[in-house]
Write a structure and sequence with these properties.
Elements (H helix, E strand, L loop, with lengths): L3 E3 L5 E2 L35 E3 L2
Antiparallel strand pairs: 1-2, 1-3
């Protein structure tokens, strides 16, 4: 699964790790994150993330 990086602060969403502190289980693909999910570091929305090359 692809990793996504926050364009605002550089935090990387790794689907293998998920975001358990915010209720996202490991193995959750970025596209499957809830629409209201935000970056745990800076609070921007999913639309501010880019696929990590």
């Amino acid at each position: 699964m692809d990793k996504y990086v926050c364009d605002a602060c550089g935090w990387v969403y790794d689907p293998a790790k998920g975001d358990p502190d915010h209720g996202v289980a490991p193995g959750t693909a970025f596209v499957d994150l809830p629409d209201d999910w935000t970056c745990p570091e800076c609070g921007v929305g999913k639309d501010s993330f880019s696929k990590q090359e």
